[in-house]
C-alpha cells in the first residue's frame, strides 16, 4: 500500500480532488484462487475533466468502473481502499447510501445499449424511472424532463419517440437514449464503459462528440473506459493505462501519445489504427495474451510479453516495478532505465507508428 | 366369462402410501367392533341384524355396463339388480353351499318341463306389483325376454335366449308389428300369471336361464328402449331415485314391494347410495375406515389393501377370502407339435410349478388355491381329483415329467411358446414361473405377449395363428356365468364351438367330451347332470389339454358397521347386497 | 441480440382482427387434423393390424354373441361403412346433428353432436358439458395456488441462491416434480381425510351449486396436490429464469440508476422472467383443461381426464373422440390467448 502512495504527487490524507481513488483493490475469491481484478489502483479526477482508462479486456478496467458505482457483487467481492466522491467515501458507505448516490451523483453509460435497456419498457419510461427515483416530481413533470433529455442528446421528435421501445431505436439512437438516461439526474461523475464499441464507426464519432458536448454543458467529470486509444485520444485530458489490474502508466494525453514510456503503452499505440499509414506497417499487435488475474506473473506482470524484459538483469521476473513519477503528472511502472526507454521509443517505436 | 372391468392400476403407489401411513385404520366402526372373524362371511351372516333404517353406502371403481335388465352381463350387476328387480328364479340368499341352489322368486316353483325338455312353464306368485302399484304380469316378463333378443339395442347381455328359444325369425319388440308388441311365438303367456318357453333344442337346466335379469318384468308402456335405464321400473325392495351414469346411483325403499311374496330379500336400509368412478385404492381405504359398506365390483381389494389386511389382525377379522367361479389355467394346443402327443401334454401337467404360479397371483390369501382339475370346488357338482400330483410342495414332479417326455419321444425336451396378455402383469409373471419350471425338464419356452383386447380375436383364440406361430401353451382364465357346469364348460371344452377366430376353447378336442356335454344338457336331474360334468372334468384332464393351476379367490372386506354380510356362492363369491343392513 | 425467445413468434400482422382471424382459421384446421388423426388411431389402425369390423364390433357385445348379434352391432355403430363415410358422419353430426335408433323411437342428437357412447348409449356432448366444470374448477383453483407459491418460491430461491432457503425449497421442488400424483394424492387422502378427518368429502365430488362447502372440501386436497406438482415445476422454472435475468445487462443498468433492490427485482427482473413463464402457464392450463387425468382418477373427481380414461378403457370411441376434441380445443384456445397476452406484455412481439 505504501509503495503506491509514495508515487502520489501528494501524501495528504483525505479528499482533495472531486474524485479520488486510493489504492483500490477488488478481489474475488474463487475455487481456483483469488482473482485480483483491481489491485492497488489510485487516481484522481476533477469536475469538467476527462480521464481515459485504457487496457485490453481482462485488465480490470470494467471492474474498476463497477467498483466506483458500488455495483460489484457484494456477496463475493472483497473491496478495499478508498473512493472519495465529492467528499464521500463510496467504499465505506452502506449499500443504501451508495444506491442514493448512483444515478444522481454518478452515472454510467454501458457498452451495449440494446442489452442494457429493459426490452419491455419504453425508453421514456426508463428515463422517467431514473429521474423520479432521485427527484420527487409527478409523472408529467418527469415525462417532460425525459422528452427534454431525449432532445438534448439529439433524438429527433423526442415527444413521439419517448414512447418507443428500445428495439425500435437504431444502435446510435439507443446509445443516445442511454446517455439521456444516465444524465437524467445531472450526475457529477459520468462513467462511460466502452460507449462506442457496439456502434458503427460513423456513429461512434457522433456519440463521442455528444459526450464531450454534454460534459461541457453539465460540467461533469468523465471517466472513459476503453480498449481503444483512438477513442480517448481526442476526448481525454489524462490517460491511465491498466495492465493486470494495476496502473502501468499515467499521464496527460499529450504525454501518453507523444512521450509514452511503458512498453505496453507502446504496444497499444502500435495497435491503434491510423488513417495516414499503410495497413501493413501500421499495426504492431502486442504478442501474447493478457495475464490471468488469478496468477499474475511475478515481477513485472507485463514481462512475459515484453520485448525488452531481458534488459533488466532478471529484475523483470522477480521484482514488481513501482509506479514512479518521471515527469510532473507523468508516472510509469517499468524497470527499464530512463535512458533505455527514451532511446527505444525514439529509435525503434516512434518511427514505425 | 363375463367381461372384466379394466381399471387404472395404482396398486404400487397405494402400497407405498399405506406403508407410509402405517395403517390409518380405526375409523368409526370401520374395524373396531362386530362379531366377525376371518372367513366368517363364508359360512354365516356376520353381524346379524333385523333393524331397519340408515343408508347403505356402496362404491364402484367403474360403472355399470347397464342397469337395464336386458343389457347387463357383469356379475356385480346381476347381484345388484336384485335390489330393484325380481326374476323368475334366483340363487338362494344364504351363506355356504346352499347359495348354489336355485329358488323361485317371481315364480311359484321351479320350471315344469315337457318330456323332451323343450317346453318350460312357470306360474307367477300372485300379488306382485311394480313400484307404482300396478300388478306385474307374465306378459311383462315375456316383453323383457323379447328386448333381450335385440342385440342391436342391447348388445351387452347374454345370448342364451337367442341361442335356445325357437325364435322363428323374431328379432326385436321394436320391429314387432303385433299389437302389444308380444309377437314372439317362442314365449307364450296363456294368462297373466303363466309363462311358457318353447326351445328349439332340449335343455335340462333352464332354471338357470330363468334366473338371469332377462326375466325381470318390464312394463311395455314404460319402455323407452336404450333410455329405459334412466328409470328402470322396480319390482324389488328398492326403486331408483336417481341414476347418473358415471357418477351415482341412489335407491330408496319401494313401498309396493311385499315381503310376504319374497323370502329371499330384506329391506333394511332406507337408502342405498352408490358412488361411481371412485379410485379403486380409495374404495379400499373407505371400506377400511368404514365410510363404505361394500365394494360393488366385488373382485377383491387392491394389492395395497391386501398387504395391509394380511398384516393387521384387527383388519383381517373383517375379511373373507372368497372363492369365485374363476379358474386360471394353461391351455395346451394339440395343433402345435409335439403337443399332438398326449405324453408331451402330460409332461407339462407334471412339470408346472403351481406353487410359483400361485405366488405370481398373490399367494393363497389374495390369489387363490392351487387347482388340480377343471371344475372348481364352488361349482355345483365339483368332484375333487388330482390326476397329476405336482410333487410335495406343488413345485412340480420332475421325475414324472421326464417319464412322460421319454414316452413322448422327447427325452431331452423341446422348444415351444407361451402366450400371455401384456396388460395382465400377474399372468405374465405366472408365465415366467411356468417357463422356469419347464426349463428344469429341458423344455425351452419363449414367452410372447399380446394385447388383451385382441387375445382371443387375433392370437390365442385364432387356430390358424396358433398353429403358424407355434403357441403351444396359452395362459387363460375362465369364469362361469353361473356356478354350474353348463355356464362354465360349454365355451371352453366343446370342440364344435371352435370357429375361425375369437375362440375361448383354445384346443380341447375330444369327441367323447362333446358327447357327454350333449348328454348333460338334456339331463334334467341335477345329480345325474352333475355326474356328467364330473366325467367331462376327468376326461379333459386325462386328455391333458388344460393345466389348471389356480382357483381364484377374492380378498373381500366387510366393515364392522355392515350387518348381515356374507358371501353368496351363487353370486360368484360376492357379498349378498340385498341382505345388508347398517343398523 | 436478446430476442432469442421471441424468434419463434410470428410477426404481428397489420391489425388485431386479421391476426385473430388467421389464428382462428389455423385453430380450426388444427382441430380438423386432430379429429382425423384420432379417428385414424381408433378406427383405421385396428384394421391395419388385421382386425375385421366384426372384430371391432365384438368388443361391444356380451360373451359368446353369435355372428348375427355381432353384425347387428356392427351395423348399428356404423363400423361396416367405409372409414371416409364414418368420418363424414362424425363431422356432419358436429355441424348439423344426427339421428339415432334406440329401440322404440328415433332420437335426434342436436349439434354439436359428438355421437352416442358405444357403451352407455348416452349422447357424448352433454356428458362432456357435465364433466368440464369439474376439470375447470380443479384447474383454476390449482393454478392460482401453484402460480402464487411456485413463482414466489422461485424468486426467493434465486435471490437467496445457495442459501438454506434455496436448498430447502429446491429439495421440495425436486420431490414435487418426481413424486407422482397418485402417490401424493393417496398420501394426502390417508393423512388429511382418514387420519385427521379434515376433509371428509375428499374423494366425493359434489357440484358447487349443490353444496359449496362440500364442494370445497372435496377440492382442497386435489388443488393442493396438483398445485404441489406444478408449483415445483414453476419454482424451478422461475428460479432458472430469475437467475438468468439477474445476470442481464439491463438489471445492472437498473441498479446503476440507483433503483432500490426491490424495484429492480419486481419491476425489472420479475417482469422479464414472467414472460416465458406465462407461455408455459398458458399451455399447461390448456392441457389441464383437457383433463387432469391422474389427479381426477386419484381423487375420484368426475372430470374430463377421468372421463377420457374410462372411455379409453371401455373402447368407447365416440367419447374418446369427443374428449380429445374438447381437450384439443382447450389447448388451441389457451395457445391463442397466450399469443395475445404475449403481444400485450412484450412490445417486441407487438411491433416488430
From TrEMBL, chain A:
Signal peptide boundaries: none
Nucleotide-binding as UniProt keyword: yes
GO molecular function, one term: ATP binding
Keywords carried by this UniProt record: ATP-binding, Cell membrane, Membrane, Nucleotide-binding, Transport
Subcellular location: Cell membrane
Primary location group: membrane
PANTHER family: DIPEPTIDE TRANSPORT ATP-BINDING PROTEIN DPPD, OLIGOPEPTIDE TRANSPORT ATP-BINDING PROTEIN APPD
Protein name: ABC transporter ATP-binding protein
Organism of origin: Actinoallomurus vinaceus
UniProtKB/TrEMBL annotation, chain B:
InterPro entries per the UniProt record, alphabetical: Peptide/Ni-bd, SBP_5, SBP_5_dom
UniProt domain Solute-binding protein family: residue ranges: 102-495
Transmembrane segments: none
Domain of life (superkingdom): Bacteria
Alphabetical list of Pfam families matching this protein: SBP_bac_5
Keywords: Signal
Signal sequence residues: 1-19
PANTHER family: ABC TRANSPORTER SUBSTRATE-BINDING PROTEIN, PERIPLASMIC BINDING COMPONENT OF ABC TRANSPORTER
Protein name as catalogued: ABC transporter substrate-binding protein
UniProtKB/TrEMBL annotation, chain C:
Main subcellular location of this protein, as a coarse class: membrane
Keyword Transmembrane helix found: yes
CDD domains, A to Z: TM_PBP2 (cd06261)
Spans through the membrane: 20-45, 134-159, 171-192, 212-235, 272-294, 320-345
Residue ranges constituting the ABC transmembrane type-1 domain according to the UniProt record: 132-342
Localization, UniProt: Cell membrane
Keyword vocabulary terms for this entry: Cell membrane, Membrane, Transmembrane, Transmembrane helix, Transport
Record InterPro entries: BPD_transp_1_N, MetI-like, MetI-like_sf
Topological category with respect to the lipid bilayer: Multi-pass membrane protein
Entry-linked Pfam families: BPD_transp_1 (PF00528), BPD_transp_1_N (PF19300)
Origin: domain of life: Bacteria
PANTHER family, per the entry: DIPEPTIDE TRANSPORT SYSTEM PERMEASE PROTEIN DPPB-RELATED
Family under the similarity heading: Belongs to the binding-protein-dependent transport system permease family.
Protein name: ABC transporter permease
Organism of derivation: Actinoallomurus vinaceus
